[in-house]
């Protein structure tokens, strides 16, 4: 019987080889699993042909979803090649059926299928379980408690606050106009909308438009929006562990702490003020209730209010939703008006008429007036094609609004297409900027 005794060097070499072999085996198992899942997903979406995708990176590899400003061009090109709907792949296993026709949208929005939580879950560490991401009875209860906050009498005083913020922005623009110096419009509008929403939500004058430095809370909001976008686009970041260990994950946690600390401190101070007012029996000397006041005073039929965590989640949610979309939409409107002076003149005339000699618009004007679902059961469209349970469907709102089979000259800026007599000629699902249909509510 021969006994072989390995030296320490040989033993270490064997250990390294074993570790390498195990790592290689684990990687191979992961790759095989991804391939199996991808093949299963491709079979599911086989009735819906689409643009070729890389087996691992999906369509991210094709420079179509890089942040280079050409996303919409690529999506519209594919929409022309693949009518009604086509799949988009984000990595090897995540696929979204991209829908861009009213007939398909009608089928989706008239169901009670829940909003997809796959993309929205990336917001949860920041926004909590607020209206944007919550579902079921929690969403229903919060939405009912917050209804009072959207009454006209509550919203009307906000017009003056927005007007004040807008005047600050316009004063800055006048300086640029006199010097004929160019500037980035989006940055100015974004600061204005943030200034406005902080006044309406917190009654807080942030001075973010004129301050010498960047407000830490505002910078955190910018960073969080950017980092959530990066995480969705980079497939490995869909893993909590990988994102947590990454530099982007570290920046996300840091920005989240800043945002949460700011919100918690504002809520704490406001609760102290309300407590003192209640004890002294005084009435707050204020012409309007801001959104935070409404959150703190909301009560259900059992006289139960929102928890501190729920209040923070709703404040953070409305801070994000209240400025981001508006800041993106307004520069686009300005650009189109500048390119179409005839419509700009009509808009200007109506605004001057509404002002009637005042310097602030009191209420509404007339002329100047991406959603996902995850299926819990199979869904069949009007053409007979079916998607199974578990499939994620993305409603491409831009694709619908630019669909040449639905709209005449969709790339022409023509606000008159939204006159009532023209709207009546189209499908009600041809224009869905704010989505439509019922919100899914779970049974208790």
From TrEMBL:
Keyword Ribosomal protein: no
Protein species of origin: Sinocyclocheilus anshuiensis
Superkingdom of this protein's organism: Eukaryota
Coiled coil: none
Keyword terms of this UniProt record: Iron, Membrane, Transmembrane, Transmembrane helix
Ranges that cross the membrane: 12-36
Pfam families in alphabetical order: p450 (PF00067)
GO molecular function per UniProt: aromatase activity; heme binding; iron ion binding
Function: Catalyzes the formation of aromatic C18 estrogens from C19 androgens.
Protein name: aromatase
Reaction(s) catalysed (UniProt annotation): testosterone + 3 reduced [NADPH--hemoprotein reductase] + 3 O2 = 17beta-estradiol + formate + 3 oxidized [NADPH--hemoprotein reductase] + 4 H2O + 4 H(+); androst-4-ene-3,17-dione + 3 reduced [NADPH--hemoprotein reductase] + 3 O2 = estrone + formate + 3 oxidized [NADPH--hemoprotein reductase] + 4 H2O + 4 H(+)
InterPro entries xrefs: Cyt_P450 (IPR001128), Cyt_P450_E_grp-I (IPR002401), Cyt_P450_sf (IPR036396), Cytochrome_P450_Monoox (IPR050196)
Homology family: Belongs to the cytochrome P450 family.
Keyword Metal-binding in annotation: no
EC numbers, comma separated: 1.14.14.14
Endpoints of the signal sequence: none
